[in-house]
Amino acid sequence: MADIMRFLLLALTFTFVLNFNAGKGLAHEFWIEPAAFRMAPMASLTAQLRVGQAFSGVSLSYLPQNFERFDVIQRETVTAVEGRLGDNPALVMDGLGDGLAIITHETTASHLTYTDWDRFLRFAAHKDFGDVAALHDARALPREGFREVYIRYAKSLVAIGDGAGADRQVGLATEIVALANPYMEDLAAGMPVQVFLNGTPRADAQVELFDRAPDGAVENTLHRTDNSGIVTLPVTRGHTYLADAVVLEPVEPSGPDDAVWLTRWASLTFQVP
User: Please, are residues 96 and 164 in contact by the beta-carbon 8 Å criterion?
Assistant: First the structure.
């Protein structure tokens, strides 16, 4: 019976994600959501992989074929997340001691076909990709039936015990790095973060911030990085945050069914005690 229920859950999740991708109108964020952002040493660290909108979405199961990397970093120790096919939550790890834990996840590439030109333009405008219509037309690309390939790069910060430590670049193609430890430092002036692409700071990049209050209400605001790829995000004590930054890159197709655009999505979740 347990195996049957696991199969049904996997089938439902797969169908839900397919529907999400097929109906992608603006953007569906991907993020890591721990059961708790602060926990005692040696307690069980659990976290869900989520895809959705406005900081609300479906929880994805542990499916190794869907990710390139999934690990937890504490100081210099990198521990791969191991699980059983279909586990949900996708992350369950025991035995972590004091310190800041950086949960890291990189998905495999997924594809999306656009049959609605206006939908692509709305998505591009929302994520601030510039004049994509001119860029698209300059490449003599069709306005219908073209494909996008997208990859997600997610991080989450969890304080275990004293929560000491610092976020850093962890080798993702694009990532958001917290320049302050939200569990130990005074964030009255805001939470400074830095956005990277291929190890280089992304200047003048849009960062979307989702702010979830203790009552579950969510607000989102848009911000921009400076010339060093840094932006200070407004935060409130007791709230949980998802920061998201997306980059669009042209791809030269080698065949008629290949993608012509690549989007790379960086996300970071944390809480402000």
Answer: no
What is the gyration radius of the CA atoms in the chain, in angstroms? 19
- How confident is the model at residue 125, as a pLDDT? 98
Where in the sequence is the domain holding 82, given as residue range(s)?
2-271
Which pLDDT score is estimated for 24?
Answer: 46
Q: What percent of the chain has pLDDT over 70?
A: 90
| Omega before residue 89 within 30° of 0, cis | yes
Angstrom distance (rounded) from CA 54 to CA 218: 7
Tens of pLDDT, residue by residue over 213-238, are 999 999 999 999 999 999 999 999 99
Q: What beta strand segments (E) does the chain contain?
A: 29-34, 38-39, 45-53, 56-60, 67-74, 77-80, 91-93, 99-107, 110-114, 146-160, 174-178, 191-197, 200-201, 206-212, 218-224, 230-233, 240-250, 261-271
Torsion angle, CA of 209/31/55/235, rounded to 10 degrees? -40
Q: What are 272's two structure tokens?
A: 């402000």
| Structural domain count of the chain | 1
d(CA 113, CA 150): 11
**69 half-sphere exposure, CB direction, 13 A CA radius:** 18
Over range 114-136, report the average pLDDT: 98
Here the tokens at position 254 are 């080698």
Tokens of 56: 């609300």
Distance CA 47, CA 226 (A): 32
The residue count for the chain: 273
For 131, 227, 251, 257, 260, the CA distances from 254, given in Å and listed in that order, are: 24, 35, 9, 8, 10
| Average pLDDT score over the chain | 93
